[in-house]
Task: structure prediction
Amino acid sequence: MPYMPELNHPEPKLRIESLHKSFKIGGKRESVLAGVDLAVGPGEFVSIIGPSGCGKSTLLNIIAGLDQPDSGSVSLNGGDGGPDQPRLGRVGYMQQKDLLLPWRTVLDNTILGLELNGVSRRQARIRALELTESFGLSGFEDLYPYALSGGMRQRAAFLRTMLLGHEIILLDEPFGALDALTRIEMQEWLLNLWDSMNSTIVLITHDVDEAILMSDRVYVLTSRPGKVKMILDVDLPRPRDFEAVTSPPFTSLKARLLAALREEKGKVGADTWP
Ligand SMILES: Nc1ncnc2c1ncn2[C@@H]1O[C@H](COP(=O)(O)OP(=O)(O)O)[C@@H](O)[C@H]1O
Ligand SMILES: [Mg+2]
Result:
């Protein structure tokens, strides 16, 4: 296992070893993940970046327990990683297209997952209302999604995710559809939330600045089949804000990240980049 220095952590929150997954693509079985190793310590913020189609969303689906690997293991909190280890409910997962239901109010959207898990509507509302303030949604609970800005809709989807369990939070390109300014505001907001909630976050992103700005460590995946190509330790001081992106240490990390991504760009299996 060439790239696992972070496994030195005494008790990783999440540990993935030698994960393989294939799908039938166009009638042919194709490898999508070809031996992914990664580990995330408690309270860490880790990003994953890689060409389209390299298996990033598949990886999160497997971590969340929505899909099974062909081989390899995923363990939470030092569990044995066996297939029966329950992950649903402990892992908060915001999928790539995690949309709010237009016919439910903001509050009722945020409690959707809890309700599906058998929590009563009344209890679920009480739990959601405790958090609307820190999610910048207080006063907007009874509105319908169309009346909200893109950033607020995204925060409502975040709240729905966090209510389902936040031992570890998986975010699949959460800011991809937002305009540049809203995106920066959301990045700063998420960093504050992460800090105040002591969460452990795994973020998939296409955005090199975002990956460096947010993370303790960035994993670069190869084009399909995805495996870890490079691990970038981001040893920039915190708290960070968007101003950090112009500092010399930041730009040198960015150059290394871009060089690794460029190497993958033209390879067979890379659909597009970004
Ligand atoms: N359920 C599935 N059945 C068949 N192919 C799939 C399935 N899910 C993903 N794929 C394929 O696996 C590859 C990786 O997909 P995905 O994990 O979504 O990539 P990424 O998120 O990195 O863009 C793609 O070629 C995709 O078409
Ligand atoms: Mg994806």
User: Anything to note?
Assistant: Confidence is low (pLDDT under 50) at residues 270-274. The radius of gyration is 19 Å.
